[in-house]
Amino acid sequence: MQEVFNIHSKIKNLAQTKGLQLKFHEVPSAGIDLNFSHTTGELNGLLLDILGDFPNYETKIRVEPLEQMVQVKGQIKCELNLTCSRCAEVYANSFSKNFVTAFYKSEQSLKNFGMHSDDLTGSFDLEFLEGDIIDIGEVVHEQMALEIPYQPLCSEECLGLCFQCGINKNKSRCQCKSEDNNFEDEKSPFSKLKGLMKQKEN
C-alpha cells in the first residue's frame, strides 16, 4: 500500500512540473494551447481522487489574456466511474463539456471586461486571483468534479436493492414475501392507521 502511495505522489509531483502552473503576467499576448490526456499523463495524479487509477479523459485548453484578465477556455471529454445510489453498482458515465474560467486581480479589470461569448456553449466562471499563479490542473479538476451528480443513477429505471435481503433487483427477482407491500407498510408511519381502518371495515 505504501508503495502505491509513493507512486501516486511521484505522478502528482511530476505533473506539477509539466507547465500546469502559469504566471498571470507572463501569459503571452498570442496565448498558449495545452492538450492533456490519460496517455500523456500530466493530470493523472491530480485527478486521482475523481478518476481513480485507470483514468480516461482528454482536455484541450486555450489560455490567453483578455481585457486585463486571463481567460482559460477548455473542452473536456471524460469517463467517470460512479456508484449508483440505488443498487450500489459501479457504472461508467461519459460526458463532454466546454468551459471558460476568467481570472482577474482587481475590480477595475471587471469594469473593463468585455466577454466575447459567441462560441461559449458551456459554463463560465469568474475567479479572483490573490497571487500570481494560475493552476491549470486545479481548473480542470474543478470542472470535472462539477459533473459528479449528487445521487448517481445507473439508469432512471434502476430498481435498487431489496430492503430485506439486499439482492440487486435489476439482476435477479427477489423472493422475499410481499416485499413491495408488507415491508413498505411496516415502515410507513400510517401503517397502524391502515390496520385500524381494516378492522373497522370488518
Task: Describe the protein.
- By secondary structure, this protein is of the alpha+beta class.
- It has 2 domains: 144 residues, no CATH class; 44 residues, no CATH class.
- The chain is 26% helix and 29% strand.
- The chain contains 6 helices and 7 strands, in the order αββαβββαββααα.
- The strands form 2 sheets. The chain has a 5-stranded mixed beta sheet.
- Strand 5, helix 3 and strand 6 form a beta-alpha-beta unit.
- The radius of gyration is 25 Å and the shape is elongated.
- The termini are far apart.
- The N terminus is likely disordered.
List keywords for this structure.
202 residues; alpha+beta; 2 domains; 5-stranded mixed β-sheet; two-stranded antiparallel ribbon; 6 helices
Which helices and strands, and how do they pair?
Layout: H1 2-15, E1 21-23, E2 32-37, H2 48-51, E3 57-66, E4 69-83, E5 90-104, H3 107-111, E6 123-128, E7 133-135, H4 136-145, H5 179-187, H6 191-201
Parallel strand pairs: 5-6
Antiparallel strand pairs: 1-7, 2-3, 3-4, 4-5
- Provide the low-confidence segments as ranges: 1-18, 116-121, 181-187
Number of strand elements: 7
Report Rg: 25 Å
Can you give the helix content as a percent range?
Answer: 25-40%
Biggest sheet, spatial arrangement of strands:
2-3-4-5-6
Order of helices and strands: HEEHEEEHEEHHH
How many structural domains are formed by the residues? 2
Overall form:
elongated
Number of helices: 6
Characterize the largest beta sheet: strand count, sense, and whether it forms a barrel: 5 strands, mixed
Report how far the terminal alpha carbons are from each other. 66 Å
Strand content: 25-35%
